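Reviewers asked in the last cycle whether our approach scales beyond single polypeptides. To address this, we selected a multi-component target totalling 526 residues and predicted its structure end to end. The input consisted of the following lines:
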Amino acid sequence: MNILIVYAHPEPHSLNGVLKNFAVQHLEKNGHRVQISDLYAMKWKSELDARDFPAYDSSTTLNPVAESKRAFAEGSQTVDVVAEQEKLIWADAVIFQFPLWWFSMPAILKGWFDRVYAYGLAYGVGEHSDTHWGDRYGEGSFAGKRAMLSITTGGWESHYSARGINGPINDLLFPIQHGALFYPGFDVLPPFVLYRVDRINETNLNATLSAFATRLDGLFFDAPIAFRRQNFGDYNIPALTLKDNVETENLGGFSLHLQKQSG
Amino acid sequence: MNILIVYAHPEPHSLNGVLKNFAVQHLEKNGHRVQISDLYAMKWKSELDARDFPAYDSSTTLNPVAESKRAFAEGSQTVDVVAEQEKLIWADAVIFQFPLWWFSMPAILKGWFDRVYAYGLAYGVGEHSDTHWGDRYGEGSFAGKRAMLSITTGGWESHYSARGINGPINDLLFPIQHGALFYPGFDVLPPFVLYRVDRINETNLNATLSAFATRLDGLFFDAPIAFRRQNFGDYNIPALTLKDNVETENLGGFSLHLQKQSG
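The resulting structure, written as structure tokens, was:
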């Protein structure tokens, strides 16, 4: 199968770099084809701006959504963006390898999503009607492909547990996993997360890589996160709220970490 | 009072630009002093990398955390980062004005956090003991200051409601509001969110600005989000999980949007 690794760390000898290199070797050894987007090495441009739209008339007000739509439709995108889009279309699975900085992606990776995810490719896809609100959240350009986050953090696993102070890791990753991966159609695998990475050294690295190998081996077999699909009956359209008869008990949210108001 | 506006949009005439300009005028009219970090206009460098650490020995492996700690302690940070830190220290309140792109900040703003939030300033602050795990989550360098997100999105308010498909807006913003603002000590006000911004035009702009003015007038009076503080009894230390007797009913999380497994 075809696998794209989008990698964002400034130091090739970092743990993230080791994991990226290991993934390439392990996947190729097992017969897969691998491409890498090494964003720092590529000197990826992080900022979405007017330079992304060569056909933009700079005497007018820049509307990033409208310009993205036009550039994608007319084929006037920049070459770096087109190259990444072609890798995405080529890939059967995408692995994102990065350190968790301030509970999200490094800026350079956020800029990859901001710029590569064009209108017409990642959003603004499909018809809108009373039963179907665009091809998104389970449908879309990347339907049939798989995606997995592989991340490192200095924090402890308990800090990211169901009652941990940072918030549960899967909730913290919801804007990425649900909002940026499931949205354009990816099936999203549970993340591979390494905690307390300052404790990972040459002595115990093999155990870490062994665990990662297991996840790589399951890339096309493990069950994805069971996010609800938008257009298959669970949601009111166009309000896009869960129907009253769906999930009546769980209130959800991060209110666990909110103090109760006294009085 | 002193107010810093960190603003991230590539188009000065965008709605975000209008809101930024309005905030400056309104706050100054009311006697406040305002500084602006217009990240696109400043050509802010988004990517945290070795160039951020002029004292870094490039023959060694770059450890961003260790280099950040050293650069902040030794005064060897870059001038652009120091300037932003001085603005933060000067400010009594910080407003972040940006469009919600893929359910998070534009990359250039994420890069502001990645680079300005040095070890020793925003994290790695305070003592670690059996009752106190660093000055964070309610304590820290920015304690006593206020922060507020002011964001725009094309989506509908219902899509971001408690049962909306995108996830509740305050949960989507949790990694920022709790993880990047409450963490180093800010009191975080509820966000000012504009939905369906394609519907905002000259006819109804005044109503929008009026609502924004109300929030600006409440910047030092409105109640902040009641996040639990870390070192005041609710959490086990060092596991940093909520104690068993705290919040026993609400399971929290985004499981509302997970399908139930059959069988």
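The first strand of chain A starts at residue 2 and ends at 7. We regard this as preliminary and will revisit it once experimental data from Aim 1 are available.
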